[in-house]
Amino acid sequence: MDLRARLHELDLTLPAPGRPVADYVPAVRAGGLVIVSGQLPMRDGAMLVTGPVADAVTVEEAAEAAGQCVLNGLAAADAVLDGDWTGFDRAVRLGVFVASGDGFTDQHLVANGASAVLTAVFGEAGRHARAAVGVPSLPLGASVEVEMMLGFSA
Q: pLDDT value at position 57?
């Protein structure tokens, strides 16, 4: 698969992979999986949204930011793969963490922004298992964080 060509068709850009803000690696390959650490909604070195969804950020803004998290995650995976997506089978799992204001229960709608990017890029192979979890806060005040697992044939 030519990931960059597909992103270009969608008018999306694969960012430079972000550097970790703590003691971990952004992505690791283990057998047939690439596991991507939690990605924040950073673009050009700036956080796109901060604060709890519904209090400081709209669902729509957070969903768009979740899509950016996926692009950041694809960049981390791309670095581990040295740009070679040969053998990509499917997106396996997506975990979406949403900093949520009191009483906010639409985490799944925020997560849809991340899911939409994966299915746009990979088609049916982008469909995945998913968890959308509300949390009181996230690193650096981010409104959303996304982790993922991608499957590759051996």
A: 97
DSSP one-letter code for 154: -
Query: Distance from CA of residue 34 to its chain's centroid?
Result: 13
Pairing of strands 88-99, 129-135: parallel
Radius of gyration of the chain (CA): 15
Tokens 């690791």 belong to residue: 28
40-67 per-position pLDDT tens digit: 999 999 999 999 999 999 999 999 999 9
100: closest CA among 70, 69, 68, 142? 142
Are 14 and 21 spatial neighbours (Cβ–Cβ below 8 Å)?
Answer: no
Domain count, the chain: 1
pLDDT digits (tens, 9 = 90+) for 63-101: 999 999 999 999 999 999 999 999 999 999 999 999 999
Look at residues 119, 99, 106, 114 and name the one whose alpha carbon lies nearest to residue 59: 106
Range of the domain at 139: 3-152
pTM: 0.96
